[in-house]
Amino acid sequence: AAEQVAERRCAPWRAQAAALLDVDLLQEALRRWGSADFEEAAAGLRQRCPALEASTETADGAENQVSARIAQLDFLVDTGAMSGADCLQMVTSWPECLSDFTIRQVWAQDDLVAVNKPFNRLMYCKKRLPREVPVADWLKTGFQGQGQARLCHRLDYGTSGVLLLATSREAANWCAELFAGRKVKKVYHAVVFGHPSWDGQVCLDDPIQGKPSETLVH
């Protein structure tokens, strides 16, 4: 009798879970962010970016990456950091942003390794984002190279791009000296909405956290 009561109590939750499995995550996200024709929009995005197909048969781990990205954007909307319209504009302009959450090695030589850090990926753990897997933790469990990988520098949470690792203490110290002495040239590419108000090159020299800074914008 107790088992029958428990089964009746669990039945609604099981039905709800089964229904959720049939939900198209991309369509639902577009609808939440304000798309009027979210079904057609989702189909168009998948056509432009096949990795958005929620199936591991078409793209390895695509479903997990897409759901992780959607959860992040929903969090930014909930906290007021972005609006639904911002998310909609970003995703429709750059659908690949939803399929890129994996850290991948792009280069290696001697004791140096370069990986591609996706945007909105923490470098270190933060209490306010307990479910995030930061780069530092990935190095302990996901790095497939030889030796212990050490971070040579950082990239901001919202910044994607090349992240340099060292697999020996000597290489790590050498890289640290280069970065500390500002002998490393860093180039950032930005995806923007609209057009800048200037022509040619502009130098931004506002201090960052009280320290001198100079950035050339083309």
UniProtKB/TrEMBL annotation:
* GO biological process terms, semicolon-separated: enzyme-directed rRNA pseudouridine synthesis
Every Pseudouridine synthase RsuA/RluA-like domain range? 112-197
Q: What Gene Ontology terms describe what this protein does at the molecular function level? A: pseudouridine synthase activity; RNA binding
Under Pfam families, the record lists: PseudoU_synth_2 (PF00849)
Q: Which residues form a coiled coil?
A: none
Q: Which domain of life is it from?
A: Eukaryota
Record SUPFAM superfamilies = Pseudouridine synthase
> What protein family is recorded?
Belongs to the pseudouridine synthase RluA family.
* PANTHER family reported in the protein's UniProt record: MITOCHONDRIAL RNA PSEUDOURIDINE SYNTHASE (PTHR21600), RNA PSEUDOURIDYLATE SYNTHASE DOMAIN-CONTAINING PROTEIN 1 (PTHR21600:SF87)
- Name of this chain's protein: Pseudouridine synthase RsuA/RluA-like domain-containing protein
